[in-house]
Amino acid sequence: MSHRAAPNALTPTPDEYEHLQAVQTSLAQQVRERDGFMPFDDWMAHALYAPGQGYYAVGTSKLGAQVGTGDFTTAPEMTPLFGQALAGQVAQILAGSQSDEILEFGAGTGALAAALIPALRLLGIEPRYRILEVSADLRLRQQNKLEALQADILWLDALPEAFEGCVLANEVLDAMPVTLFRWDEDGQLNEVGVTLAQPDEIRFAPDLPPSPFQFTERAADGHLIDSISRRMPPLPAYRSEVNFQAESWVRQMGSWLRKGAALLIDYGFPQHEYYHPQRMEGTLMCHFRHHAHAHPLVLAGLQDITAHVDFTAMAQAAQDGGLEVLGYTSQARFLMNAGLTELLTQIDPSDTAAYSRMIGPVQRLLSEAEMGELFKVMAIGRGISAPLMGFLRGDRRARLEHV
Ligand SMILES: C[S@@+](CC[C@H](N)C(=O)[O-])C[C@H]1O[C@@H](n2cnc3c(N)ncnc32)[C@H](O)[C@@H]1O
């Protein structure tokens, strides 16, 4: 179907190329079966999660702290201090819900659990740890990594009917498939989908392999028009996304989280920033070998695809599900409130090499220019009366507008 570019740092290996061809063939078949319009959320769901094909469904390395290992890194992968700092807040939620149960969604390589469980033990808590992971490959990696802890850990296959305790989701909402839309020049709203490329492939960027797909549009249905019109006014040629799946996941939590709180940690903003007039192309980002770009139609099944989180929509969904929004702040503020600075004072500064190894990732977590400000932490829950320690200073719930 496509010629191959001269090799560069982003050229797939022969095995990856074979996988790419298989995923593209399967997606092309689906585009044809849908008369040339595949909604982008279905496209993204297949590219990330289709059994045997999706990025998260197959055994590639994905998460890795350094260039050369995996495609991207996350806070728990960068330093155990992230999980250790979370421990105090998790302990407070467990106490408030009179439970010792934790449910982590999308646990990646298991790095958060590996840091959090020993830190909770130091606080005298032996948690019952539950993980719900949609990727069979990552589930296996989690099992291997966490075995040595000899902790009470169970992997769930479905949402619980009822749960009391602490729910954790670090960078999970951003990995849920989004619906794409675009206001056209006449103020009409269109849904953006995927079709076969004309003539037969498109090069989105010089260093990326070409794609046999391109974007296409059709008039949005009433549901999409209603929900987008409530979030932003029409802006000519403005394309963005809306995460209905994440909203319904949060809303549904109201039916099974009987007592306790969920900490949702992710990159994103309140709605007025999300749909800011200057953010004309939305927030879609892709990651392949630590290279970030904005072209989701290339490297299907080989790259991560994410969108930032609209935290106003998440707060609204939580309230629609009967949950309370207990706190919302930046990751930097949350980690400092939760005691990260005190943890740093426990590291021996005389061992300068070890100290700088520890301090570098912490600076990235806290720095406004890196993860400290872009990442946010939101707590939602029910039946927790005491103010949560992670939000005591710098709570920004008021910025979420209609909450
Ligand atoms: C970007 S990774 C983050 C991994 C890990 N939390 C970390 O911070 O290192 C996204 C994770 O979310 C998982 N995931 C996506 N949708 C999910 C869902 N609906 N339920 C549970 N896990 C999900 C993916 O399989 C993957 O493990």
TrEMBL record:
Pfam family, one: Methyltransf_28
Keyword Cell division found: no
Single Gene Ontology MF annotation: methyltransferase activity
Gene Ontology biological process terms, A to Z: methylation
Domain of life: Bacteria
This protein's record includes keyword Methyltransferase: yes
Keywords per UniProt: Methyltransferase, Transferase
Protein name in UniProt: SAM-dependent methyltransferase
Protein's organism: Mesopusillimonas faecipullorum
